Inverse folding.
C-alpha cells in the first residue's frame, strides 16, 4: 500500500477482489513488529512443511482456518495438528 493510501478495515472477503485481499494480507504481514515475527529461514521452513501437508488447501490450513502464510510468520503461533508439525 502506498503511503497515505486508505483502505477499508471493515470489508468482508466477499466484498474484496482476490488480488486486493492477498495484497492486504501481505501488507499486514509486512507491518507486523519485527520482534513478533520468526526469521526468514524459520518462515520458509514452516511454509515448506505446510506445502507437504494434506491439510493445506488453497493457502489455508483446514485444521485452524488460518492462511498459513499469516500463521507461520508469527512467533507465538504453532501448527495446530496433533502432534504439531512446527512449534511456536
Ligand atoms: S499449519 Fe500444520 S496442519 Fe496446517 S497446513 Fe501447516 S503443517 Fe498442515
Amino acid at each position: 500500500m502506498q503511503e497515505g493510501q486508505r483502505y477499508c478495515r471493515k470489508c468482508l472477503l466477499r466484498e474484496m477482489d482476490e488480488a486486493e485481499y492477498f495484497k492486504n494480507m501481505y501488507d499486514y504481514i509486512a507491518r507486523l513488529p519485527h520482534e513478533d515475527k520468526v526469521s526468514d529461514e524459520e518462515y520458509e521452513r514452516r511454509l515448506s512443511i505446510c506445502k507437504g501437508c494434506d491439510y493445506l488447501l488453497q493457502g489455508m490450513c483446514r485444521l485452524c482456518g488460518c492462511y498459513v502464510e499469516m500463521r507461520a510468520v508469527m512467533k507465538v503461533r504453532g501448527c495446530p495438528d496433533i502432534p504439531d508439525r512446527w512449534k511456536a
About this structure: The chain has a mean pLDDT of 89. The chain is about 35% helix and 5% strand. The radius of gyration is 14 Å.
